[in-house]
Design brief:
about 300 residues, alpha+beta, Glutathione S-transferase Yfyf (Class Pi), Chain A, domain 2, 4-stranded mixed beta sheet, globular, binds glutathione
């Protein structure tokens, strides 16, 4: 190693006095990243026949909502029927004017609930989970102590996952080069978070206690799918099998039929029979998957 240089061959970078947006940063998703908010083009959102209109994609944040909706429907709550429309974030659909009206933050998932006199938007996946769980009185304990525990873990997920996705996942899988410093920093934090979960799940069946709640749904969509080898091809690198309690919990949730259906909705990657680009009816799982309708995303 050259004297005075650490860990990487990248020339030393001195930040300018004022940052300006001049070049694409490179790496996956560089073309959709911008330093400004607001719409780039006019486009209304479609509206289907159900009160709940979801605009999303089957990333971990998107899957949280479709898993909850499928769980509600599995309990026989027909008012949880929904239309799920595909938002292709790689194509910039999140910057259309209608989507920005539904979520000023231009990120999936966004829900518009038409069961109010004036349709109400709900954005941020944690807020959507809470909105639906409270509206239907399921997957959210009402007893104060259990409710506080569930909320604590739900907010833990919302605060922690950006280190996993935006930190570890970005630098391990998407950045234009492998930089040792950020990969080390975020692998360490991701493993610390997995250990937090592993210790909790050592003596609790589910995250908030002995009941399956929206905290499990939120955390499973990220950390469950990570240990099941579905995120960033990082299972071996992070030695996920060593988190035995997380593995047990992740596999148990993965086996739930509603979870399997929720994962398929707005999915544009992987096996064609698991891709249901749009969902408007329960029968769509049987008739509208990509292997059956043969369209490309
Ligand atoms: N905190 C937000 C994060 C949502 C989010 O990051 N969504 C990503 C996909 S997982 C997205 O839409 N990215 C598009 C973009 O950044 O332009 C939530 O939980 O809803």
């Amino acid at each position: 190693m050259q004297k005075g240089r650490l860990m990487t061959d990248t020339p030393e970078y001195t930040p300018p006095k004022v940052w300006t947006w001049e070049t694409e940063s490179g790496g996956t998703f560089a073309s959709i990243n911008r330093p400004i908010a607001g719409p780039t083009h006019d486009k209304d959102l479609p509206v289907g026949k159900h009160p709940l209109q979801l605009y999303s994609l089957a990333t971990p944040n998107g899957v949280k909502v479709t898993v909850l909706l499928e769980e509600l429907l599995a309990l026989g709550i027909s008012d949880a029927e929904y239309d799920a429309w595909l938002i292709k974030i790689g194509d910039g659909d999140q910057f259309g004017s209608g989507f920005v009206d539904a979520n000023p933050n231009s990120k999936i998932p966004a829900l518009v609930d038409h069961s109010f006199e004036v349709p109400q938007r709900v954005f941020e996946s944690g807020a959507i989970l809470l909105h639906l769980a409270e509206r239907f009185g399921k997957f959210m304990p009402t007893e104060p102590a259990a409710r506080a525990e569930t909320l604590s873990w739900l907010f833990w997920q919302m605060g922690s996952a950006p280190y996993l996705g935006g930190g570890f996942g970005h630098f391990y899988a998407y950045a234009p080069e492998k930089f040792e410093y950020p990969i080390n920093r975020f692998a360490m934090e991701t493993k610390r978070q997995l250990d937090v979960l592993d210790r909790r799940l050592a003596d609790h069946e589910f995250i908030a206690g002995n009941e399956y709640t929206i905290a499990d749904i939120a955390i499973w969509s990220w950390y469950g799918q990570l240990v099941l080898g579905r995120l960033y091809s990082a299972a071996e690198f992070l030695d996920v099998e060593s988190y035995k309690n997380v593995m047990r919990w992740a596999r148990a949730i993965d086996a739930r039929p509603a979870v399997q259906r929720g994962r398929m909705v707005n999915r544009t990657f992987g096996e064609l029979e698991l891709q249901l680009h749009e969902r408007h009816d329960a029968s769509d799982f049987e008739t509208q998957t990509q292997d059956k309708i043969g369209e490309t995303a």
